[in-house]
Amino acid sequence: MYIYRVKHVLFKLKNKYLLSVLLILVWLVFFDKNDVFTQYELIQKCHKLNAEKDYYLKEIENNKKELDELRENSKTLETFAREKYLMKKENEDLFVFVTR
């Protein structure tokens, strides 16, 4: 039974069309410029870039909200300037505490 199967497979491999198709498939899957492994890497890179795109779109929305808030409220603008840029009024002294 086993010998029959081996002979049957060898007989099928003697068929030049089947052999050509198998060789082309092996070439396309493993050796071509756009092989399976390259496609997988490109898909992973595409997913990563889409995740980064979503992150940056959310950051843009948050920055727009913060900017609108700064434009509407002068108290918020003063707090932002004091915290981020260490600005002060004329008659104030500024002490910066650095924690390590």
Describe it.
The chain has 100 residues and is mainly α. It folds into 2 domains: 1-32; 33-84. Helix content is 77%, strand content 0%. The chain has helices at 2-13, 16-31, 36-72, 74-85. Helix 3 packs across helix 4 (74-85). The radius of gyration is 33 Å and the shape is rod-shaped. The termini are far apart.
Give the structure's gist in a few sentences.
Helix content is 77%, strand content 0%. It is an all-alpha fold and 100 residues long.
Per-chain topology:
Blueprint lengths: L1 H12 L2 H16 L4 H37 L1 H12 L15
Helix pairs in contact: 3-4
Main attributes?
single chain; 100 residues; mainly alpha; 2 domains; 4 helices; rod-shaped
**N- to C-terminal separation?**
77 Å
Q: How would you describe the shape?
A: rod-shaped
Count of DSSP H/I helices: 4
Mean pLDDT: 87
Secondary structure: helix percent: over 70%
| Helix-strand string | HHHH
The Cα radius of gyration reads 33 Å
Task: Let me know the largest β-sheet.
Answer: none
Give the DSSP E fraction (strand runs of 2 or more residues).
Answer: under 5%
Number of self-contained structural domains: 2
Uncertain runs are none
Number of strands: 0
Structural class: mainly alpha
